[in-house]
Structures are given as structure tokens and as C-alpha cells.
Amino acid sequence: RKTADHEARERNRAQIDGLKAEGRRAIADRNVVRATRPLETLRTLDPSAAADLEVQIRELEFDLGVGELQGLADRGEADPFRALFARLDGPPYRSQRDRDGRLGRPALSLGLALMKAKEPRAGDAVPWLDKAGALGVHDWKLYEQRGLAHIALGAWDLAEKDLREFRSRAPRTEATPIRFADLWVHKAREAMKRDQPAEALLHLNEAIQLDGTHATALHHNGLARYRTRGLAREALDDLDLALRHDPRLVPDREYATVALA
Q1: Are 145 and 162 in contact (CB under 8 A)?
Q2: H helices within 31-175, ranges in order?
Q3: How far apart are CA 36 and CA 163, in angstroms?
Q4: Residue 129 above 90 pLDDT?
Q5: How far apart are CA 151 and CA 144, in angstroms?
Q6: CB atoms within 10 A of CB 182
Q7: Sign of the CA dihedral with 216 first, then 218, 221, and 225 last
Q8: Confidence grade of residue 2 (pLDDT, cut at 50, 70, 90)
Q9: What is the sign of the dihedral through the CA atoms of 78, 123, 180 and 163?
Q10: Sign of CA dihedral 139, 145, 151, 152
Q11: What's the pLDDT tens digit per position in 181-215?
Q12: Which residues of 118-127 are buried (b: 16+ CB within 10 A; e: fewer)?
């Protein structure tokens, strides 16, 4: 009887070893379907071995999923990306190594791709750039592109906050995108509404340093100079330059007063 029991245990052990080896080969071949085949039998024969194999399968699923996620992000395919991201962000994968970073990097890539599309999708890009930041990805490109997205959406305070982060994180050789000039023009407009032309000039100086061809900045700069120091000729020079850059620009009625000064 002891011999029969021993032989049964040996057969059982050999079967378990064979199933474990089958699972390891499938994991090495990065084949999830094959790796799951031994699971049901292993759960009966050796629950501990089955649990170990399940951990490896989850790791493989997550790794393959992240690779697929990155591909979708690079192609700007937002809808399938959203569905796969939701699955990988679920409870079965919460314990994965460097989970946040591995999910955050594709989220950043998708946000960047949506902003750099032929027709930028600022409203779709911001949530993914926010998600990347929440997952601990703080690449300077996040702040650059999210700032530009906020400008496109008219979220001026958020745009300014991102501009500050971009400038603090980007390499010194990285120029500030000229579209940030719109932020300074907005701030100058608000200052002019409050009858603060001196403050407006500071903002317009920032805008013109970024984009010397920004017609609206040049137009407002002339008015601010006139209101601050009564520089009528210089103001008209600014207007002339603005109209050269944008002939469709309609001058503010105040320029009639400037012309008569």
C-alpha cells in the first residue's frame, strides 16, 4: 500500500511539474492563452503553484497591455486607448511593478499626440495629460502641451500655471512656444480693462518677446504706450507694424484720438 501511495504521489508531482513547466514556457513565449491552460488542473492539484502562475500571467497581461497602450497612444487612437486603459487600471493589476509610471507614460503620449494632430484636440488631450501628471509623470512636455491646450480652451489661469512649470522643468535650450504669447495678450487686455496700461505693457512685452509678429500684441502695445506716456507717434508705428502682419486687423477706435494727438 505504501508503495502504491508513493507512486501516486510521484505521478501527481510529475503532473504538477509538467503543468508548471508548460506555464513557464508559455510565459517565456509571451503567450497568455497557452499560459492559462494549465491553471484549472493546477488549482486542483497544487493551489499554491496555480496562484504563482496566475501572478505571472497577470504580469504578462499587464506588460503586453502597456505595449499595446503605447502603440494606440502614438497613433492618437483615443477610443480604443480609453477602453484598454480602463481595463489595465482595474483591480487585477493594482499590484504591478511601477504600475503608475507604466500607465502614465502612454497617457502622456496620447495627450501629446492629440495636441500635435493636424487638428489639435485640446479638450480631449487635457484629461489624459492630467491623468499622466496624477500618475507621477512630470515630463516638461506635459506642461508645455497642457498649457497650450488650456490657452485653446480659454483656461488662462491654468495655462499660466503650466507655463511656469514648463519653464522650471524644460532644458534651457528649449524655447517657449510662441502660442503662449496669447496668454500675455489676454493678461494685457484684462489690465487695459482695469485701466492699468503700465501693467499691460509688461504683459505685452512678454508677448512680443515670444512672437514679434503677433498683430494683436503690437496693436495693444501701441494703445498702452499712448495711455501710459502719451507716445502717439510710437503708438501709430506699433499699429502700422500690426497691420503689416495682419491686414485684416480692425484698429480700436481709440487710435483715431491717437492720430489727432
Answers
A1: no
A2: 32-36, 39-45, 47-74, 78-88, 99-115, 122-134, 140-153, 156-169
A3: 49
A4: yes
A5: 11
A6: 21
A7: negative
A8: low
A9: negative
A10: negative
A11: 999 999 999 999 999 999 999 999 999 999 999 99
A12: eeebbebbbe
What's the helix, strand, coil split of the chain in %, to 5? 80, 0, 20
- Cα–Cα–Cα angle for 151, 209, 242, nearest 5°? 85
pLDDT surpasses 80 at 4: no
Q: Is the pLDDT of residue 6 over 70?
A: no
CA–CA distance, 218 with 235 (Å, rounded to integer): 9
Q: Is the dihedral of CA 15, 17, 20, 24 positive or negative?
A: negative
For residues 223 and 220, give the distance between their C-alpha atoms in angstroms, rounded to a whole number: 5
Which tens digit of pLDDT belongs to each residue from 218-245?
999 999 999 999 999 999 999 999 999 9
